[in-house]
Amino acid sequence: MLELLEELFSYSFVVRAIIVGISVSLCASLLGLPLILQRYSMIGDGLSHVAFGTLAIALPLGFSPLKVSIPLVMLAAFLLLRIRESSKIRGDAAIAIISCSSLAVGVIVMSQTVGMNTDICNYMFGSILAIKQEEVYLCVAISAIILALFVFFYNKIFSVIFDINYAKASGTNIEFYNMLLALLTAAIIVIGMRIMGAMLISSLIIFPALTSMRILKKFKSVVICSAILSCICFLLGVVVSFAYNIPAGASIVAANLGAFLIFWLISSIIRR
C-alpha cells in the first residue's frame, strides 16, 4: 500500500489533481447541505449541463474553457433563481429547461466541430491527466474564495435555511444569500469539471451531505462531517482509480456511494 501511494504521488499530474480535487471536494460538500435543505439540490446537475454547453462553445473558438464557463454558468444560476422567484415555472422545471437547452447546444456545436471529441470527453467524464498548472492556481484561488465566503456568511445562511421568518424580521436579504449559494455552486461545478466531468460533478455536492445526514442531525456537525467525508472519498477514489485503471470521476462517485451505503446501514442499526 505504501509503495502504491509513493508511486502515485511521484506523478506531477496526480499531485495537481489531488490539490484541485481536495479543494473542490471541500467546497462542494459545504454547499451541498444548504441546497439539499432548500430542496434545490438538482441545480448542480442542471448547471453541469450548462457548463458542458459553454465549454463546447469555448473550445472551438480557442478560448480558455474555465474563463468562459465560470461567468456563463454563474449567469445561468442567476437566471434560474430569477425564473424560480418571478414566474409561474417551478424550480425543477426551470432547471430542466435551461439544462436541456444547454446540453443540446453543446451537442450541436460538438457535432459540427472536427477534432474536438477528445477534449469534450475529458470535460464530460473527467480526466486527471488534463489538469494544467495554471488551472491549479485558478481552481485553488476560487475554492479559497468560496470557503471564505461560506465561513463569513455561515450564520446568515443558517438563518435563511432554518428560520426564514426571523431572517426577514432581522432585515436579512434572503434573495442575496440564495443567489450567493447558487453562484458559488456554479463556480465549484465549473472548476470541478476537469476531474469529475460535467456529468458527475454534481455528485460531490449531493453525496457527502446526504451521507452525513444518515447519522448526524445538527447543521454544523453535518457540515463538518460532509467536508471530511468528501475529502476522504476523493482520495480513496483516486487511489482506486490509479490501482485498477478505472476512470477517476467514476471511481470517486463509487467511493461516495459506498460511504452512503455504510452510513445508511449504521443508521438502520442505530434505529433498531
Distance between the termini: 37 Å
Order of helices and strands: HHHHHHHHHHHHH
Average pLDDT over all residues: 81
Helix % is over 70%
Specify the number of helices: 13
Radius of gyration: 19 Å
CATH class: Mainly Alpha
Keywords:
mainly alpha, ABC transporter involved in vitamin B12 uptake, BtuC, 13 helices, 0% strand
Structure description:
With 272 residues, this protein is an all-alpha fold. The chain has a single domain, classed as ABC transporter involved in vitamin B12 uptake, BtuC. The protein contains 13 helices and no strands. The protein has helices at residues 2-8, 12-37, 43-61, 65-86, 91-111, 117-125, 133-152, 154-162, 164-169, 174-196, 202-212, 219-244, 248-271. The protein is globular, with a radius of gyration of 19 Å. 42% of the residues are buried. The mean pLDDT is 81.
Would you summarize the structure shown here?
With 272 residues, this protein is mostly helical.
Topology of this protein?
Elements: H1 2-8, H2 12-37, H3 43-61, H4 65-86, H5 91-111, H6 117-125, H7 133-152, H8 154-162, H9 164-169, H10 174-196, H11 202-212, H12 219-244, H13 248-271
Helix pairs in contact: 2-7, 2-10, 2-11, 2-12, 3-4, 3-5, 3-6, 3-10, 4-5, 4-10, 6-10, 7-10, 11-12, 11-13, 12-13
